[in-house]
């Protein structure tokens, strides 16, 4: 059995959105596609994800979060990263 077919289905499905968004490199896309060509549960799940993405794009396409929300989320992410880094440096859990 080739390495492509030995890919864990969970890993393949985790990367489906990257593939759908065109955010994976050619080698990764080829490896995922090869796996799905031989794994009916993965290709079925891929089809569902593709339909969901298309539906979201149709219903929410062009919508952009308000700038105030984007700023608040950015601030919260920075706080979370700072807290995590501080805990790692001090050895806290």
> How many domains comprise the coordinates?
1
Distance between the termini: 42 Å
- Secondary structure: number of strands: 0
What's the SSE pattern? HHHHH
Please state roughly what percent of the residues sit in beta strands, choosing from under 5%, 5-15%, 15-25%, 25-35%, 35-45% or over 45%.
under 5%
Q: What is the residue-mean pLDDT, rounded to a whole number?
A: 80
- Rg calc: 19 Å
How many helical elements? 5
Low-confidence region ranges: 1-5
Structural class based on helices, strands and sheet pairing: mainly alpha
Query: Largest beta sheet, briefly?
Result: none
Shape, per Cα inertia axes: flat
Task: Please bin the fraction of helical residues.
Answer: over 70%
Protein name: Mycothiol system anti-sigma-R factor
